[in-house]
Here is the input.
Amino acid sequence: MQKTEAAIEAILFTMGESVELSKIAKAIEHDTETTRKLINDMMLRYEEENRGIRIIELENAYQLCTKQEYYDCLVRLALQPKKAVLTEVMLETLSIIAYKQPVTKIEIEKIRGVKCDHAVNKLIEYNLVQELGRLDAPGRPLLLGTTEDFLRNFGVQSTSDLPMVDPVKLEDFKAEAEEEMQLKLDV
Here is the structure.
């Protein structure tokens, strides 16, 4: 029975919402009455063992939930600041914005060669990039720039303090990029 109860637990945990008794019974290959008894036994045991989770019944369906007395812990956890993780794509996009600001998404995409919506949205969410206004051009595209948080996080007082790109390395990079594009075109 332990293995069957573990299967029920796995089903309820994975689904995250209420699951009809008949579907649970079918999944564990038992009849509904046996399944109901197993779940009721699990519900009692969770209470006796003072676990942080419980199983609730909702109109002939069951759901695995957190016990109400632990909600405060969950709220404290949810309120903790999340550490922003910058992917390579986000760093690349942020670099373009930092050096070219004010810049539009179209300009960023022209430089990167791919769409940048997700990266820009994440950078705005992390408060590293902000909307600076709109370009006076057809469609009035948004202008993007860095925030004070960007400066603080990267340890610079202004964007003029950002490191300059070595002109020799820049030329090498351009030649490398052109060579790579030519190879792609030849294929």
Strands lie at 19-20, 53-57, 61-66, 129-134, 142-146. The radius of gyration is 27 Å. The chain is about 55% helix and 15% strand.
